[in-house]
Amino acid sequence: MRIVFLDRDGVISKYYPGDWSKKWEEFSFLPKAKEALKRLTKANYRIVIISNQAGVNKGLFGPKILRYITKRMKEEVKKSGGKIKKVYYCPHQEEDNCLCRKPKVGLFKKAERDLGYIDFEKTFFVGDSEVDILAGKNIGSKTILVLSGKTKSKEETKDWQKQPDYIATDLLSATEIILKLL
Question: What is the mean pLDDT of residues 78-82?
């Protein structure tokens, strides 16, 4: 089973510094993201989203709104020829010290419980922040940093605890890396 794990904000959709998409009208696909999801789907990758969404516990939006945004996002991806297999969110804040908040690997383990055995060394995790790269490394995945969200340049990574395996401008560029490594 080929799997690509993706962060949501800054990878698939617009990243709002210090904020979240609190309603569907604020959710905006990044350019070429739907094309990337379509290409991954056609290459028989299962697409799994792993995303911190602390705005829920901060009271900025509720779980019902998050589910609605997710439903609409999946519908739009499907219309463009892609398919998101599963979506996992951590609604907690950092101080909650939960097991699901990236860079911890609880959501990856939940995906494995739901989907069956996953050889994480044969997966990719695409994210836009140091937390994403740490999460991918912590689970043993290959990591791709995209510069379309929180992190805007390679220079920002120089003091990170761990470096990404690859750096791409956006999800479509990350997809090209993944497909070349098949």
Answer: 98
Helix locations, 11-167, DSSP H: 33-42, 63-79, 106-115, 130-139
Q: Does the annotation mark 119 as catalytic?
A: no
Of 7, 128, 132, 170, catalytic: 7
Query: Per-residue pLDDT averaged across 33-43, rounded?
Result: 98
Non-local (6+) Cβ contacts of 84 within 8 A are 37, 47, 48, 49, 73, 74, 77
* Residue 36: other Cβ atoms inside 10 A: 28
Residue 156: what pLDDT?
97
- Give the bridge partners for 4, in sequence order: 47, 124
Residues 26 and 162 sit within 8 Å (Cβ to Cβ): no
| Whole-number pLDDT of residue 18 | 86
Average pLDDT over residues 106-131: 98
CB distance 144 to 168 below 8 Å: yes
CATH entry 3.40.50.1000 includes domain 3-180: yes
Among the listed residues 9, 128, 132, 170, the single catalytic one is 9
Placement of tokens 């490394």 in the chain: 137
Answer whether 0.85 is exceeded by the pTM.
Answer: yes
Determine whether 128 is an active site residue: no
Q: In what order do the strands lie in the sheet with 142-146?
A: 84-90, 46-52, 3-6, 124-127, 142-146, 166-168
Q: Which of 89, 139, 133 is nearest to 112 (CA)?
A: 139
